[in-house]
Amino acid sequence: MSSDFETYEQDFATLTAEVTNKIGRIPKLSGEEKTQLVLNVDKQLEEVRELLEQMDLEVREIPIQSRAMYNSRLKSYKQEMEKLEKDFKRSRIAYSDEVRNELLGEDAGSSENQLIKLREERAHLLDNTEKLERSSRRLEAGYQIAVETEQVGQEVLANLHSDREKIQRARERLRETDANLGKSSRILTGMLRRIIQNRILVFVLGAIILLTIILAIYFNLRGH
């Protein structure tokens, strides 16, 4: 699983290097060449976003004990992506201003207020876009926390189930031990009873023999 993540990392590094180079070239170009470069960068940024999504999915499949390291790497890649998007937005704003100035030509001076208003609306739109992106990242972080919590809960339940089975086995062994102790106790009680009975019998027999001897001696003495 980590090998797939590392493959995505290599693709990410290659793509972001190309995008960074192209964003730096945008201000130096003009006309159709600049338009094509802007469209190409926009397409490659979409590919980078898809790569990040794949990397995010891979991280969720990595065991929890190894996931922290990959999460940290993924976070740095997302931050790099945010920087690229901001740089690209600035380049696109400058590019849009150039195109508008070319189209307006001499009338640009007379419509300065309209351009200011358009810039304000564009800045407001970019601000809203960034807010949406931050909300989306928070939702992704919340979802990831929920997934990790679910996995931890499943592991806890599995451990509890295992502990329950161990306790049940221990109880069964304890019941077997109690049964064996009860059986042993009954056997020992029976043996003790027989020992007492045998001792009483020996005592009675001894008393009878002793009495017989005494009587025999007594009658012999009277006969003489």
UniProtKB/TrEMBL annotation:
Lipid bilayer topology: Single-pass type IV membrane protein
Organism: Solea senegalensis (Senegalese sole)
Main subcellular location of this protein, as a coarse class: membrane
Keywords: Coiled coil, Membrane, Protein transport, Transmembrane, Transmembrane helix, Transport
GO annotation (BP), single: macroautophagy
Top-level taxonomy: Eukaryota, Metazoa, Chordata, Craniata, Vertebrata
Regions annotated as coiled coil: 34-180
GO molecular function, one term: SNAP receptor activity
InterPro entries, per the entry: GOSR2/Membrin/Bos1 (IPR027027), T_SNARE_dom (IPR000727), Vesicle_trsprt_v-SNARE_N (IPR007705)
Record family assignment: Belongs to the VTI1 family.
Protein's cellular compartments: Endomembrane system
Protein origin, superkingdom: Eukaryota
Keyword set includes Zinc: no
Membrane-crossing segments per the record: 200-221
Alphabetized SMART domains for the sequence: t_SNARE
GO (cellular component) term, any one: cytosol
PANTHER family: VESICLE TRANSPORT THROUGH INTERACTION WITH T-SNARES HOMOLOG 1A (PTHR21230:SF26), VESICLE TRANSPORT V-SNARE PROTEIN VTI1-RELATED (PTHR21230)
Domain T-SNARE coiled-coil homology: 124-191
Protein name: Vesicle transport through interaction with t-SNAREs-like 1A isoform X1
Record-linked Pfam families: V-SNARE, V-SNARE_C
